[in-house]
Structures are given as C-alpha cells and as structure tokens.
Design goal:
single chain; 151 residues; 6 helices; globular
Length: 151
Amino acid sequence: MLFSVFLVILAAWTAYVSWVDWHTRRVPFGRAGLAVFVVTAVYALPRLVLHLPARPGAWLPYVLLFANVLVGWRLGAVGDGDVRLWAVWWLWTPPALAWQGALTTAAIWLGGSLFRLLVLRWPTGQKHPAAWEVAFYGLWLTGTMITGAVV
C-alpha cells in the first residue's frame, strides 16, 4: 500500500517537473528532488541488489537502460535533469517488470522523438524539454503496479 502511495506521489511530482521543464526548459531539482533520490536510494537500490538473481540476463535491462541514457546525456541529447528523472523511475521498476520497462522506455523515446519532429517541428540538435516522456513512463509503471499486473 505504501509503495503504491509513493508511486502516485512520484507520478504527481514527475508531472509537475514535466510542466516546469516544458515552460522553462529546465528540470527543477531542489529539496523535493533530493528527497525523492534519498527515498529511492534507501528503498530501491537494496531491493534490486538483494532480489535480482546473479544472472547477467536479470541485470541486462537495467544496464541497457542506464547505458543508453548516459550515452544520450554525454552526447547532449538528454539533459541532466532528465537523466535523474529516468534513473528514479527505472530504480523503482521491479525486477519482474525490467524487460517490459525497457521496451516501454524504447517506445516512449521513439514516440516522443517522432512527436517532436513531426508535430512540434523542433529542429534536431537543439535542447528540448523531455521530462514529459518520463511522465508517460511513470503513468505506465504506476498503473501497472496499482492494478497488480506484476508477475
């Protein structure tokens, strides 16, 4: 129950961050962001380390997700705040949903890129707000967890 409540609060916080990012092109990271990271580190990291089996296949989706976003960050395609937001949501993704989370993330990135290119017509190579894509992932994960669709 507490897990679901926190995911709803995290989804609301992500929606707020997305709104601010859309208007200012800056992801706010203040005390609320620090609190989210502390709670994530205290809860999610030990849970992942203890519950993931020692097989490379179990860790592969997490490694691919973080490697992908870090490469995008180093190339300037994703901002610092977006990386932090994605990291929080991926760390809250339970191991049973890791591959689904990776596929959902890929679909969101592809859909968001096409939306920016075809609908918003923003030129490539410029910094654009992308926290709204994380909000879609948050909605997916929160809905999946609350409805009990975790295997």
